Amino acid sequence: MCGIVGLFLKNKALEPALGDMLSKMLVTMTARGPDSAGVAVYGAGNNDHVKLTLRAEDAGAAAALANEFSAALGVPVDLSIRANHIVASLPRDAEAAALQWVKSRAGQIQLVSVGTHMEIYKDVGLPEHVVSEFALAGMAGSHGIGHTRMATESAVTINGAHPFSTGEDQCLVHNGSLSNHNSIRRTLVREGMSFATQNDSEVAAGYLTWRMSKGDSLKQSLTSSLSDLDGFFTFVVGTRNGFAVLRDPIACKPAIMAESDDYVAFGSEFRALSVLPAIEKARVFEPEPATVYAWERS
Amino acid sequence: MPVCDLAVSSVRELNQALHRLAPDTNETAWEIDNPQGKHAIGVGINVPVEIDIKGHVGYYCAGMNKFASVRIHGNAGTGVAENMMSGTVHVMGDASQSAGATGCGGLLIIDGDASARCGISMKGIDILVKGSIGSMSAFMAQAGNLVVLGNAGEALGDSIYEATIFVRGEVKSLGADCIEKPMTEADRERLAGLLGRAGLDGSAKVDDFRMYGSARELYHFHVDNAASY
Fold first, then answer.
1. Contact B116 A256 (CB under 8 A)
2. Does the complex come out with an ipTM higher than 0.85?
């Protein structure tokens, strides 16, 4: 099963409500995946500052670790703490030292994502719990994706929760299972990439990051995944400016989309879209198999 | 007229109320509001009632329908009218995968497109799609008719038995053991009848359709066909 949702706002006036809309979509997909849930939200930021999303193993230690992190860098760091997640915004030239510090605290703190506009929050438990834990409903942004997981390929841990981010401001959620993820992982490791989990979806995210690092557009990277990735999948992918959807050629996993002048929305089932404003005026359609749907803002 | 608002009552309450109806009930016209993509709406109806569902529905809407006429004023999720026995289900929008799967009788009309595996393993149902259908449609279809005014995706009628497929548009590819067949006068009458039942008397011409069915090569195991199974 697994449930995935995505929302790409065209109308800027809706941006303060992104988190609220995404929360409602995610909770409707609880029956498809009660093991864990996660979201990526693309919000405020600028290209001179890097946003790191970090996760403290012990939620009680998050504040202390955040302060320690800030002091160790010796540069102004803007910190925001939500439950066990810390989002740290820092000058780009301090990024290397920041990543080094995180590595030195392995076991206490883990890197979830790197970007300029993207923040990722994920945890085990019901979507309703995860949504309220991180106060997702109050978040603003231009686009976001979310996932409710029914674990099949790997354990029920936060590491197995989606979205997976393997490149700056890039993330992916996946419903399905890939059959050749181990061989693709080996290929990508030879290309210099590293993976934090044994999860097949992280390989899919890594594959797209690799293609985009070679100069592919988001759409091209997904098109080439059709010939290289084997198995069942519906992918929803976010980049700094973009949002894309792809289903495998057999379209094993359900998908439904809506597009209006205000937004593009994706859900595993229509229930996830039914909570959106003015959904009755949107064009609702089922994405075709093996067809890349991509939107990018200028 | 009974009106059921699914924003207030549950699908289970609705289905129980429908199942309690006697065959000679006077409550023959139902309206269902706010379906909001919920699953299994109106499953297992066994009486001749008319039901209007005002919006999009989720999985398996009107599955196992017997006698009822169900109109869905929106899109339908996976498996609409699955295993229908008799009656009519009319989807006014698009239908997702496996529309009319294993249907034994009755008529399913889809005004928009139907996704992959439309009419998979159909066993006597008639399905009329005004738009296009996805890949693997009528896979292992055994009896009944699938009429498509638009195009058909890959592997149409794969491993088909005695069902008949009529397509007006392009067929991307035919599945194993499915071939185009010349239409006899009886076939033409059958198609005209189906178009008429779907209210398409004037707007769709029998001559514009091509007919497909089983080559009957896979009915009995033959080792030379092993690769085709």
1. no
2. yes
